[in-house]
Write a structure and sequence with these properties.
heterodimer, A: mainly alpha, B: alpha/beta, six-stranded mixed sheet, 8 helices
């Protein structure tokens, strides 16, 4: 009720509130609005499989169909892969899909939600955040496919299975930083969205989705260069998680990938908070 | 401490114009900025406990002004200050997702408007009752008529009690019976809320409920004062 409002004039939030604190502030904002985030994530997930007879089965079916296509492609080009290869491709497709959708989803998070943005103000960091949360949840559901795989291939149940959800989280995290970095720009020029869709498609081949880290290593010097790609770590992580073995990537590579994610989160938060207020005028 | 709930001082807001790549490059070279000024040097205050109306022709900047107060757009120049929580009622039900049920959408919309979980759980029965949707509340919203959507939107939006309420032309949805009911509900809300800023084209209503009116024309404030005087001024200015 209004009555005893003693508070003095408050300045508006939303404009120019970017500082070195932004990356941490954004986390606390998301936590504070968790009820809203939960509802928006639910809308995002429901929206993806609306009116589908198979519903959430598609979360598993889609990567499986994709993986089978890539499997045949590989057999035609290179021939004779090892018996675990279909599994590696399937996991690659799931993890890369999580990254790709997180990236494109957070890039277009502001422009897609123009209607809501015009309606009400709440901290806009919530838009890219809900976008990756939705993707992470869907990718985690896709990961249930691991259960039949373990039974079929008679794989051991180890603690390393935890690598699978971790790899999904890392893939999403790598996506959001970069996505936030350019999301305001995408409000002004949708070209950004198209460019990033291309980047995701091209990155698919440059990252170990159809191939594996071990295959690259077998080719000598390329094996070292591959580690400059931060996505190598989450992709390899998921595979080794299923196989039940440790990561086998040099520490520098692991720290490099996580470090890249953190740096992009900090940069992305800063740029996002700095420019989103002006950018929404373009919507 | 002042008795003002909203203070707007010399607010100017430009909208950028979308141009293709070639035009943009030309502008960059010629160092000129193409923009549309939606508000120019707008200043006014709303006192605590006051019902302030904003009138003006379509495209005069009324809605933009409300969006500045609610924080959706930052002002390019000038300052906008407000004391307390603000809520903007506009475009009811536009944020609904068609494949979720009315109940889910009510919770979603409520949380978008800034309600906590507890508040929504408490208010939900009242919201559902007011919306008159009955068994339709558990059907997907895409099966709703536009009137039903608007009713649900109004039911959720009017269940809130902010310190400052901004209303942007949300009266007059649904059939005559519901129109009456919603008008009453909004009027109750206006009465129970400390400060209200309302944008509407129905001058009759504005005359009834507003303490003061602000006339805005082409992004500038033309007059502030008694409702009768300002409405007269409106016809003089806009002819």
């Amino acid at each position: 009720m209004p009555a005893e409002k003693v508070s003095l004039m408050l300045k508006h939030v939303g404009c120019g509130n970017s500082s070195w604190k932004s990356p941490f502030l954004n986390l606390s904002i998301v936590f504070k609005h968790r009820f809203l985030v939960r509802n928006l994530v639910r809308r995002e997930i429901r929206g993806r499989y609306r009116n589908a007879m198979l519903g959430y089965t598609w979360t598993v079916l889609e990567p499986m169909l994709l993986a089978s296509v890539y499997y045949f492609l590989f057999v035609m080009l290179a021939g004779n892969p090892d018996r675990m290869y279909p599994v590696w491709v399937l996991l690659g497709v799931i993890v890369w899909g999580c990254f790709g959708r997180s990236l494109t989803g957070s890039v277009s998070s502001l422009s897609r939600n123009a209607q809501t943005i015009h309606l009400v103000y709440f901290p806009r960091i919530i838009f890219p955040f809900t976008s990756i949360m939705g993707n992470i949840v869907i990718s985690m559901m896709s990961c249930l496919v691991v259960i039949p795989i373990i039974i079929f291939y008679d794989l051991p149940l180890t603690i390393y299975l935890l690598y699978i959800p971790l790899s999904i989280l890392l893939a999403g995290f790598l996506g959001i930083g970069l996505g936030m970095f350019v999301a305001p720009l995408n409000c002004m020029h949708r070209d950004v969205e198209h460019l990033f869709r291309f980047i995701v498609r091209a990155g698919f081949f440059l990252s170990p989705v159809m191939w594996t880290y071990e295959m690259a290593q077998a080719r000598g010097s390329i094996g070292e260069m591959v580690l400059y790609n931060p996505m190598v770590v989450p992709l390899t992580m998921a595979r080794h998680g299923v196989a039940g073995e440790s990561l086998g990537i040099p520490w520098a590579g692991i720290l490099g990938s996580i470090g890249f994610g953190i740096v992009m989160w900090i940069l992305g938060s800063y740029v996002f908070n700095r420019y989103e207020a002006g950018a929404v005028k373009h919507l | 401490m002042t008795s003002n709930a909203v203070e707007i001082e010399n607010v100017t807001l430009h909208f950028p114009k979308q141009r293709n790549a070639l035009k943009m490059l030309m502008n960059l070279v010629q160092r000129k900025k193409e923009r549309f000024t939606a508000l120019r040097n707008v200043s006014f205050t709303a006192k605590k406990g006051e019902v302030l109306g904003i009138i003006g022709k379509n495209g005069s900047g009324k809605s933009t002004l409300l969006r500045i107060i609610s924080g959706i757009y930052p002002a390019d120049e000038g300052t906008c200050k407000a004391a307390g929580s603000i809520s903007l009622l506009a475009g009811l039900g536009t944020g609904f997702s068609g494949h979720q049920t009315g109940r889910e959408n009510a919770i979603l919309y409520g949380s978008i408007l800034g309600h906590g979980e507890q508040v929504m759980i408490e208010k939900l029965p009242e919201i559902i009752e007011f919306s008159e949707l009955e068994s339709f509340i558990d059907e997907p919203v895409r099966t709703y008529s536009s009137g039903m959507k608007a009713r649900l939107g109004l039911a959720v939006a009017s269940a809130i009690h902010p310190d400052i309420l901004l209303i942007d032309e949300v009266l007059g949805v649904g059939d005559p019976q519901f129109k009456e009911k919603s008008k009453k509900r909004i009027l109750d809300l206006v009465k129970s809320t400390g400060t209200v800023i309302i944008v509407s084209h129905s001058f009759g209503l504005m005359k009834d409920i507003c303490d003061r009116l602000v006339l805005i024309h082409k992004g500038k404030i033309v007059g502030v004062g008694e409702p009768d005087t300002i409405i007269k001024l409106y016809y003089e200015t806009t002819d």
